[in-house]
Amino acid sequence: MNRTEIAELIVKRIAEERIGLTRQYKESREKIGYFTIDNLLPDDLAMKIFSAFPIPETMKLRKSLREHKYVAAQMDQYEPVLEDAIYSFQDQRVVNQIQQLCEIESLYPDEHLYAGGISLMDQGQFLNPHLDNSHEKDRKRWRVLNLLYYVSPDWERHFGGNLEIWPDGVSSKQHVIDSRFNRLVVMATHGSSWHSVSPVTEDKVRACVSNYYFSDAPLKDSDTFHITSFRGRPEQKFADLILRADRIFRQGVRKLFPKGLIKTDHLYKK
Question: In CATH, what class is 3-256?
Answer without folding.
Answer: mainly beta
